[in-house]
């Protein structure tokens, strides 16, 4: 069965992280789920080799409103990274934001594959995985 190698959840709200982690585990679609509480932690993670290799998750779920470095600040820094640190990653903006400007900004940014309201449901995650990873078995 084909699964995602690694999913990176970037969100300061631990309850959402816990719920989303459990959802990925229940669906059995990821080998590893990594949680970072803000954009700075996530950038440090993405740019620090582990066992000689950069982590390169298949999927990043990014919240907008976080302390230290918010989702938009993370995105600007992420886009400036070398291709080998970010290539081939599906980046999903996962947020409670009701601000229509956030949706417009996300839609106009090529790095963002999807803009989704949280919390994720099993149905929404299944649809997103089918859309962005059609060879995945969920």
TrEMBL record:
A Pfam short name: Response_reg
InterPro entries according to UniProt: CheY-like_superfamily, Sig_transdc_resp-reg_receiver, TCS_response_regulator
One GO process term, biological-process aspect: phosphorelay signal transduction system
Keyword list, A-Z: Phosphoprotein
Keyword Phosphoprotein: yes
Gene3D superfamilies, A to Z: 3.40.50.2300
Protein name: Response regulator receiver
Residues of the Response regulatory domain: 6-133
